[in-house]
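Attaching the record inline, Q. Sequence:
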Amino acid sequence: MNEARDPIGRLHVITDESLQDRFSHARLAGMAAEGGADRVQYREKRHHSTRAMVETARAMTESLADFETSLVIDDRVDVAVAVVAGGVHLGRDDLQAEVARQVLGNGALIGGTANSLEEALRVAESPVDYLGVGPVFGTRSKADPAPVLGLEALARIVEAVDLPVIAIGSITAERVPEVLAVGAYGVAVLSAVVCDPDPREATRRLRRAVDTFDAAAPR
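Structure, as predicted:
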């Protein structure tokens, strides 16, 4: 398994087959890696057997083998263990972070989810490495999404927690600068990549936006 460009990764791309029918999880993973994603997160909300999910995750791992991009599994610690993934991202109803850390060890990346300042403060007390915070602008990927936070609430969360914050929720390349400007460590993107006619180029636009912001930031 290759290491990401930094311990957390500034650009996370989340794969999803339910929003489009052109590309598999594995193909999306490969295109995201080619485009410069630091992390690829396998997200599957449809009902699939554990065996099927492990097979998909293994195919994704193969797609990432030649890149400095590692695989994070959404929700499923058992699948992450089976494919020796780089880590997991846990939602509020998933396995507790304390248990996930015991299972995966200190070398794995564990992300937590927060949709409010109160939740962010609570999750930040658990053994997670970063917080996925959103939706910042909205979301197309959930039938019953949490309330939109906006940039001001995102900034308050960034200020309040001593963890890297990965912003999520209708983030496009054009919105990357304003998200990073309020202190987010990075962005996680789903529909802006998987629903684009060219997911590889969509990821490249996001990578350029992150790198351009960094180049212009005061030293």
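The radius of gyration is 16 Å. The chain has a mean pLDDT of 93.

More tomorrow.
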